[in-house]
Design goal:
Largest sheet: 2 strands, antiparallel
Strand content: 5-15%
Order of helices and strands: HHHHEEHHHH
Number of domains: 1
CATH superfamily: Winged helix-like DNA-binding domain superfamily/Winged helix DNA-binding domain
Helix content: 55-70%
CATH class: Mainly Alpha
CATH architecture: Orthogonal Bundle
Distance between the termini: 31 Å
C-alpha cells in the first residue's frame, strides 16, 4: 500500500500515519493490555471490526511499528509485537492519557481511575518507563521460549 503524505510537515506526516481512529488504540492494546493475536484484538472492549483491524495491522507492519511473527511454541499462531519504533510511541500514549484524565473527566466521568492513573499523575516518566520495561520483558521471554 503506498503511503500518502499530505505535505512535508512532521506533525502532519505523523498524523497521516497515526491520526486514524484505531491506530493508537491498537498500539495501546498491545503495550498496556498485552494484546498480541488477531483474536485478542477482536475480543477487546473497543470492538474493532475484523476488516478494519486487518488493514490497520498491515499499515502498522508496513510503517515498522509492529512486526508479525509466529508464537515460538505454536507455529500456527501469529503474533503482532511492537518494534522499537512502536515502543517509541509510549510517551505519546501517556500524554494522551494524562490529557484525557485532566480534561475529559467532566464530560466522561467513568474514565478509568485506578492505580495506574495515580502512578501516571505522580510521575508520567516513571509510568512510561514501567510500561516500556514490562513490554521489553515480555519480548525477552518470548525470545527465551523460542
Amino acid at each position: 500500500m503506498p503511503l500518502d503524505f499530505r505535505c512535508n510537515c512532521p506533525f502532519t506526516s505523523a498524523l497521516d500515519m497515526l491520526g486514524d481512529k484505531w491506530i493508537l488504540v491498537i498500539v495501546k492494546q498491545m503495550l498496556i493490555e498485552g494484546k498480541e493475536t488477531f483474536k485478542d484484538f477482536t475480543e477487546s472492549e473497543e470492538a474493532i471490526a475484523t476488516n478494519i483491524l486487518s488493514s490497520k495491522l498491515k499499515l502498522l507492519e508496513e510503517i515498522g511499528i509492529v512486526v508479525k511473527t509466529m508464537r515460538p511454541n505454536n507455529k500456527k499462531t501469529k503474533l503482532y509485537l511492537l518494534t522499537e519504533k512502536g515502543l517509541a510511541l509510549t510517551p505519546i500514549l501517556v500524554e494522551l492519557a494524562r490529557w484525557s484524565d485532566g480534561n475529559l473527566r467532566d464530560i466522561h466521568p467513568t474514565i478509568v481511575n485506578g492505580e495506574g492513573m495515580e502512578m501516571l499523575r505522580k510521575d508520567k516518566q516513571a509510568f512510561a518507563m514501567s510500561l516500556e520495561n514490562r513490554y521489553r520483558e515480555k519480548l525477552a521471554s518470548l525470545e527465551l521460549n523460542a
